[in-house]
């Protein structure tokens, strides 16, 4: 149930159908709550495993009640307490082992609940107007089964606007068709595309560790590098497609989490398109306040552009660290933060050297864009090693071939990604240029039906034929 | 889906759907599915052609014994989708795919008579590429003496025949008529698993192929309520028929072939082990059913070895691993509760306790990076590379002293022998 399986789809569709028996907000909320409770019950058999999670939710709610009653000065303490308990429950390795709970408990979805609870506390602490959030609404928001496992991280005001609307957002035949098409697409991404890409990556990892001829190792390294980012995209965005569509069928609009990330021509742009709700959350609650604080303290105009660099580093370092509790993720964080910081420095330096106008002209150059796109992909693929591998695997991988051979592989990845992604962008542009009065032919409902039917058939055949559990959603582990 | 696209969709989402689209859209969907299915099947047939000619000339149909014996002096050809070869099966007047008639043994030569199942017969592999055909040259070169190999293995159950254990006991006189200096029984896990099978020869050729096909895509057995409901639905007669039709399509074979071929060893093994029925023999502790099969196997081996001993002919046996077992051995790791060497150890104990020679080639698979790639992924039999690999391993084990008559002499002696 915690993956993009037939069971999850069926469960979500039944919940959506029952939810639409009445447009009443009470009915829809009762159905969502029941569905979320059943969903949780199906994920774990023993109620005891939920106790720490309930404790965490209670702590968050207690903080909210305090802030609502005007104890704004306690906001910082509430936030710190929530962060500390989260880190403790997630068993971050820098905490003493002896302090942890030594019985199995439920942590699935905890990271996403953490973001929602923090968001509520910060907003409640900051806002002049204290909106009351009842316990039911709080539980609906934090335990909503459509966003429970891997997000997207929705703001409370957006959730409440749709969920508690007297007149819920319309749900016509067209919308239903579009959501079903999106569900099929998501299912195909997770169960076919991601599965195949995972196989390619696993094969690469296996080959590179074996005593095979050098050319096989180089090829294995190449495929291993390029397969993982696409796998992760198909796996995560496919699941997000499904939950966004299911939520929409329940008349709730979830925020988008991806916007064609591999078309990004810079690493900064990439993070505007990848796991958007996470990066937006951190930009809102870390980057912006930190930048404001630094700007207030540093008066030098010459240093002002570099403050952004520092803030970007801190923000994206935290994004990296959030992904896991081991030292690999610390490096992952440094590489994410380092990537955006260097990207920002590059922009600052080019603007200083070429002038703003000159830099803007350069940024529009198709070759510069294509090379930047290739570089962005290559860097992201490089950072991914600290995302999916442990230190032993990383050691094996990097010692499998020489430094010079790695340089050749990375150069090939960069140039290959540049050429292939540019070709894809061109092809996409050409295909979308065929238009009727209603818009591009390829996005018409007829075309959508054609490819939804085709993808559905392929996904069904492959899933039934393989007869194995749906691949796990990578991001549910965080 | 892009964010902008999603926004577009939402904006256009509430427009009314024209009435005609309630008919047109489902029709377009069905048409797309039919066209895709037709195009895929056509492309699969074009890229992975099959061929068969005269199979009914080679195999007797409606035999009163229920068996499907080979017709002596027959020739037939076939190509399966997974193979690039159109294979000719030419059977001599005794019905053996031996590449020659059974001739009197040349003076001074050493004759090995092979018995076994479809794999030993060289199913789906050109005869000159089978290990039975490669062994004489390699063994003669290594030992410095003329070694002949006469292959008596029938098609086995795979061709509708009896399982080889029973077959070998029943036809043992034929084996002795070939004047063997050594009888070598090449066993596959499938032979051992079905040693106690009572319904031999009752299935048709088409259904007899099912085990190999199913081997590649084992069904999930699980205890959850959901799985039970799914099993109830999918195990009905309609689902069986549908599944059978699907299995017959080239698309199904090609898709399975490509998926299994591209699987990493880890993925393939974990997927294979999910099927208790087919992976039972890989368990570290054999269950009662498996123990029963081993007991039947033990009885057959005792009979064969008694007959061989009475005739004064040494008897040797070797287990060739199946695809999943080869992958596990090559990886050098496997999930807890499994042991790819377990069956080998059991067979060794059985064969040696009755006085036979056991050749252990499983350890040789450890040194091969991806031995499972030398099998037809869906069918499960070794391909031409697999046969070459088996030949190499057999030469190594036969000449290392296990069979004294084939032990490699020291360099000077070999040179002298060659000089003569």
Key structural traits:
heterodimer; A: 478 residues; mainly alpha; 19 helices; B: 420 residues; 5-stranded parallel beta sheet; 3-stranded antiparallel beta sheet; 9% strand
Short description:
Chain A has 19 helices and 2 strands. Chain A is mainly alpha-helical. The longest helix of chain A has 38 residues, at 327-364.
Descriptive notes:
The complex is a heterodimer of chains A (478) and B (420). With 478 residues, chain A is an all-alpha fold. Chain A has helices spanning 6-19, 25-43, 51-68, 75-89, 110-126, 135-143, 145-148, 156-163, 173-208, 214-249, 267-273, 276-297, 304-322, 327-364, 366-383, 385-388, 391-400, 403-433, 445-466; strands spanning 435-436, 439-440. Chain A is built from 19 helices and 2 strands. Chain A has a two-stranded antiparallel ribbon. In chain A, helix 1 (6-19) packs parallel to helix 10 and helix 15 packs across helix 18. The relative contact order of chain A is 0.10. Chain B is built from 20 helices and 8 strands. Chain B has helices at 3-13, 21-47, 55-58, 118-121, 131-143, 164-170, 172-177, 189-193, 205-208, 210-216, 225-234, 237-248, 250-262, 265-273, 276-279, 288-311, 323-331, 342-353, 384-402, 411-419, and strands at residues 51-53, 75-79, 87-90, 110-116, 147-151, 182-187, 315-319, 357-359. In chain B, helix 5 packs parallel to helix 19 (384-402) and helix 16 packs parallel to helix 18. Chain B is globular. Chains A and B meet through helix 9, helix 10 and helix 19 of A and helix 1, helix 2, helix 13 and helix 14 of B.
